[in-house]
Amino acid sequence: MRATSSWMRWRQRPRAWRRYAPAGVLMMLVGGAVLALSAGVRINLSPSEPLGLWRVVPVRALRRGDDVGFCPPVRRYPFLEPGTCRSGLMPFVKQIVGLPGDQITETDRGVTVDGHRLPHSRPRRRSLRGGIRLPQWRGRMTLAPGVYWTYGANDPGLSFDSRYWGPLQRARIRFIVRPLLTWEIR
Length: 186
Hints:
By secondary structure, this protein is of the alpha+beta class. The chain has helices at residues 2-12, 16-38, 162-165, and strands spanning 41-44, 51-57, 67-70, 92-98, 103-107, 110-113, 116-117, 139-142, 147-151, 168-169, 173-183.
């Protein structure tokens, strides 16, 4: 009988790992997040580009198709997230579709770059959230040196990009991002 009672006491004793495991897991998650941030990994939750994990790399010569992070040249709108830009907004991530020397034409029907229409590029007059009137850039121009055209290529219907504010100056571009682990939700 004595063996049974000793066995019962041993089974009822809290095990140290049960007590400290949640704290250990939390410490590993926080440590992993800090390590990922210091390595330049960021999370994109905007539908403009695929959702997921992206790696930030330094800016170098920009190419068509590069995904870049920049401080947007727009005022605050209620649907924009606060962030680290001088304007108080979060940097945008968009794809470069127009390079210096490219001919850009934007009408109510959409955008063309050197005569090639961007798919689903017809701009909206109002935001989907709150029905806020959006700025409208219209016209034709040749992009000057150091000037680019951006586009939310993942879901253009929801993207707030150059269709609304026009060309983007190179000085606003803070980084290039590369996808690590992304997925598309449509």
